[in-house]
Each structure stands twice: as C-alpha cells, then as structure tokens.
Records
---
Amino acid sequence: DEPRALPRDLEGLRVVVSAGGTREPLDPVRYLGNRSSGKQGFALARVAAQRGADVTLIAAHTVDLPSPAGAKVERVSSAEELRKAVQAAAVDADVVVMAAAVADFRPASRATSKIKKSDDQPDPVITLDRNADILAELVQDRRAGQVIVGFAAETGDEHGSVLDHARAKLRRKGADLLVVNAVGDGKAFGTEDNSGWLLAADGTEQAIPLGAKARLAATLWDAVTGLRQRRLQ
Ligand code: CTP
Ligand code: CA
C-alpha cells in the first residue's frame, strides 16, 4: 500500500546513525565479523530523512541495501574506522544513534600476508584485544543537549531476563534511550521485522510490537522528539 506522507517534524535536526556490522581483519583475506544486516540502521536513516532531518549514515558491512534517499552515506569497515567516522560526525550532531553491531574485540595482530597452514607448525591461536566502546565514549564527550541512543540485542540467561540485561546496560552505558531486541531463534538478524522494548534513562519503558523496521524507526524518532520537547519545557 502507498506510504502516507510523513510529518516533516525532524526539519533542522542533525542526526548521525551507525549501521551494519564491523569486520576485524586477521590477514589480507580474512576477518572476524557478525551477522548484522544493517536493515534497522538504514531504516532509521531513511525515516529520519523522510521526516526532514539532516542525516549522516555511517555504514559498516550490510546486506545489499539501497542508500536511504537524502542521507549522506559514509562507508567503513572495522570498529576503529567506525569509531573515527562516528566521532567526527557527532561533533555537530543533535542525535547520535548507534545501531551498528560493533565488534567488541579485534585480533591482537593483523598478519601482513595470508596466514598459511603447515604440518610442522602448531595451528595458530587468535589472541583478541578489546575495542573501544564508541557509545560509552560518545556519552562521555556528549555535547550540550545531544541525545544518544544505543541498541542492544540480548538473550536471557541464568543471570537474568532480556529486560534485566537491557536495564543494566542502559545504566552502564549512560545513553538516553536504549532499543532492546530479543535475539535467538532467528529473531532480528537479517529479518524484515523487529520487536522489543524502548528503555529511557528516566525509567520509562515502552514495548515495541513486532513490525517493520521502518515502524520501529518511527517509534524511535517519536521518542527522540518527545525527549527533546520535554527538555525544552
Ligand atoms: N557499542 C559501541 N562500541 C562497542 C560495542 C558496542 O558503540 N565497542 C554500542 C552498540 O552500537 C550498541 C550498544 O553499544 O548501540 C550496545 O552494544 P552491545 O554489544 O549490546 O553492548 P556491549 O556493551 O558490547 O555488551 P555485551 O558484552 O553484551 O556485548
Ligand atoms: Ca558487544
């Protein structure tokens, strides 16, 4: 069906969205990566641009997706490249949304030539170093009034439910909003639909019913404008 005309309620808002999965090189031909499709981040950028925002999309690796109309797209690969691009774009942004799946670790060393197998050498062991937490750094260097949004894909475990983990993550990260997707059993990764919760730093929690990623994007932009309006009052 025909999409309805969207309100131009984000006119003048400068937003940065990161999307997709980073790749951490092992050697010239191999990398450690993840299953992020980038679809949710691209939907966020597309909907924001449709609503009039000035959008910069920092895109790591994604499935084949059309560039969101009206957004400025910058391509990156590793977590460190994503970090530099997001930091540079965040300097004059009103809103930063970290929808990218950023590798927590990278191989401690990157071989300059292809790693070979050998019958007289032991098999290699990959040592990992921790990557910087881009979201936590954004919160630390936050410019006045900037809204910072994180995403979390969680599973429940013996330490708590999806929501328990998400509430703790929101507190730990210090973001204003956290979108939580329950993952596992084929949920979220690469699919067209998403569901979850939207948690705000003020303690409000909103369930996001299963729906198109553009629908979740609209819900998030509504929450961001609501937050900004409350701050102005
Ligand atoms: N994130 C980031 N930099 C990293 C890792 C994550 O900016 N090095 C951001 C993600 O883009 C996301 C949020 O932090 O918006 C939460 O990511 P997640 O992987 O769920 O959180 P972690 O703190 O890495 O915790 P976990 O150990 O559960 O992976
Ligand atoms: Ca992580």
---
Amino acid sequence: MPKAPLPKDFLWGFATASYQIEGAPHEDGRADSIWDVFCRIPGKIADASSGDVACDSYHRTHEDIALLKECKAKAYRFSLSWSRIIPLGGRNDPVNEKGLQYYVQLVDDLHAAGIEPMITLFHWDLPAELDRRYGGLLNKEEFVKDYENYARVVFKAMGSKVKYWITYNEPWCSSILGYSTGLFAPGHTSDRTKSAIGDSSREPWIVGHNLLIAHGAAVKAYRDDFKEKDGGQIGITLNGDWVEPWDADDPADVEACDRKIEFAICWFGDPIYLGKYPDSMRKQLGDRLPQFTEEEIALVKGSNDFYGMNHYCANYIKHKDGPAEPEDFAGNLEMLMENKAGESIGPETQSVWLRPYPTGFRKLMKWLSDRYGGPVIYVTENGTSVKGENDLPLDELLQDDFRCEYFRGYIGALADARSKDGVDVRGYMAWSLMDNFEWAEGYETRFGVTYVDYNGGQKRHPKKSAKAIADIFDGLMEKE
Ligand code: GBH
C-alpha cells in the first residue's frame, strides 16, 4: 500500500471565534468589546444584527462539544473574549473570575471529550474601554502592556491545560478593515463619504506595527515564564489568499502578485521570520510605515513556534500604472475574479470575495514555506459559504455538496503540499463548526458545517459537510 500523505498524529478539527458564537454580552460581568459598540452604529451590519445572541454558545458549550464529537474532531480552535476575562481590559483593571472560569471549564470539558483545545487570545473583540481610554490599538505604549498582562492572566489560569496558543487572528483585518476601509470595528476610515474618523494613509500601518510588538511581548512572556513547565507552542494566525496574474505574459502583473502577498501576509510574516518589513512596502509607504527600534525587532523576530494559516480563496492580480494613492493598502494593484482571457478563478459563493481555487492553497503553502525556511504550519481556518444557502429549505440546505467539494479540494491540496512539496503542515481547522455571526455581513452568510436555526432556539443541525471532513481525513491519514 502506498504511504498515506498525512501522519496519524495530524491534528484536525474546527474553528470558531468568541464574538461570532457566544452571545450573552452582559452576563457574568462581561463588558462591551469594540464589536458590541460597532454593531450599534446604524448601517454597519448588513442585517442590522449583532452578536447579542449569535449561537448562544455561552450557554451551550455542551452542545458544541457534542457536535465536535459527532464530527470526530480531534481539536477545537476557539477564541477568548478579553472583556469577559478583564472587562475593562487594562493591566490595572480587575480580573473577572466568572468569565475566566467559563473558559477553564470549556477546556476541561474538551479534554474530557478527548478534544485538543487550541486557543486564540484575540479575534478582534478588543475591550471597548481600551478604545475609549487611550485609542486602543493605536496606542503602542498602553496597548502592548495591557495585552501582555491579559495574555499572562490567561496563561496562568490555563497554561497547563492548553498546548496551542494563537496570539492574534488576522492582524491584517484589525488594521485594514478596522482603520482603512472602516468595514470592521472600530470603523476608522478617511473615506469622506462615510463621516469619517481616522487617517487611513497612516493608521493601519501604526496598528499593524503595534499588534506585532504586542504579539512579540506576549510570546516572550509565554517563553520566559510558562513554556518550559507547560510545554505548549505559540504563534500568530495570518490571513492570506493566493494570487494569479491577470495577464501571465505581463511581467508587471507577475511582479504585482508577489507584491500582493507581501502587503497581505509578509507585512506580518517578514518581521516575525526575517526581522524586517518587505522592501516593496517600505518603497510604497515610506515613513508612513513605522520603523522598529532594536528592542522592538528583538521581540518580534523569531516569535513564532508555528505559522497559523487562514486561507479561503484566490484572485487574479493586475498591476496599476502610476504612483499609489496614499490610502492604498494592497500594493497598487487590482484584484479581479477573471483573468485577461475571461476565465473565472473559481465558482461563486455567497461571499463576494470568495472564489474557491484549491490549487492556490498548495501553491501558497509552498511559497510561504520557501520564504520562511520551512516553518511548522497549522492551518487555523479554511472554509466556504454557499451561494444562496440561506434561502434554501432546511432539508436541501443540509445537503451542502458544494461545501463538501470545497473541503475535498482544499484538504487534498494540503495533503499534496505535505507529501509532495515537503511543507511541514501539521494541523487543519475548518471554518466553521457552525453558522455564526459573519461580522459586517450579519447572519446572511453561513460558513458552518452545522446549520444554526436562529429563529428556532439556536438549534444545531449538522450538514452533510460535518461528516464529510472526517471521511476525507480518514482517507488521507496513516492508520494506527
Ligand atoms: C476569516 O477571515 C475570519 O477569521 C472569520 O472570523 C470569518 O468568519 C471568516 O473569515 C469568514 O469570513 O470585502 O474586500 O474587504 C477571512 C479573511 C479577510 C475575508 C477580509 C474577507 C474581506 C475582503 N477575510 N475579507 S473585502
């Protein structure tokens, strides 16, 4: 029999995030995060909804764990709500034991069910008080100290029980969507049509810089005081999709492809693995991109035990002529769904930005592996919405063949990246365990392998894809 492409200890499971699933925004002492505040601003969320109830997971962790067992998951990636644990957020603010205990209990229950917890410390839901008090992510001195303090509180409470830590989910989103397009909390933009606050020619780069340093500070805290006795690993999760040139015969488009990945991923990846920002970014942004002090870069360089990879889709890239706009954040290029020949990169989904292209997953893993010297990779999110899914009757919706195909394609590409390209990928978390609050898109877009009936007491109904993933891995992994 040929060797199976994935080892028997390959860690696979499902991912979620606190604000997207928990609900219970005021229970047991939790205070607002910037997302609670943002959802109250008219026009920000497509269906005018919020995470106030969501999947009600705060009261239903036992149901979520039952789902994970039904799906045969080995691991569960979830995030912590900082404002449950330290409601006001700061290093001199009180810790909320009830909030902390909710997560300690969840970790214990997962272990009892034989499921490995993987914890994201920060999936965008900054305590609102820190934004009010000192400008949140824009304030390096305060934020770095408060984030490190929060991380230490968590490591102390459950470090002995958790082996996989993620400092941040997708700092690109916090920086660009939060401080440039204004699509995400706290909604800064310099787009004057949107009664703007903020300066998107500068703020996103400051926020990204501060997030990197705070990540470095939390990793140092973990390595100095916890790692040896607790034996876990810590890293950051970066989002990034694959790119193909709009015109493969135009060297400018080919070059723009690398530039796109540099602006999206290497902005964070290069300082962590190579100790500096990409040259293409420095060239375009000049002194609007902050400089690291020696002390800062010492904190950031080498600060990943593993690379957390969120990946969904691909685009075609066409370079733009002429100088970049001061507000440009992508590398002076266009992102397109069709190439010069009019071919589509992949089929449509419910998300305008998401067209599946599994080959791109394998290519990006190899690209990153080459650039960063073969790091250990855990895929921390991958999944899809399905066009029109929300409008289907339940019995049809549960037969989500499109999503099953997506997972077959992407997990197959991952197996090839490992077995044929030598990429050191060791885990995979599908997004998501269940339908949930899809940020600015509200509840209209579903990413779950489980249907959540928002009008029927948040009842969970597994879709076909919930079972498909176990079957796919079963076919790819070495047996005992
Ligand atoms: C993930 O981000 C998130 O981590 C997760 O919380 C979310 O539910 C999941 O995706 C599904 O969306 O409209 O042009 O501004 C994925 C990366 C980056 C994808 C920003 C959507 C918006 C592009 N996201 N992107 S645009």
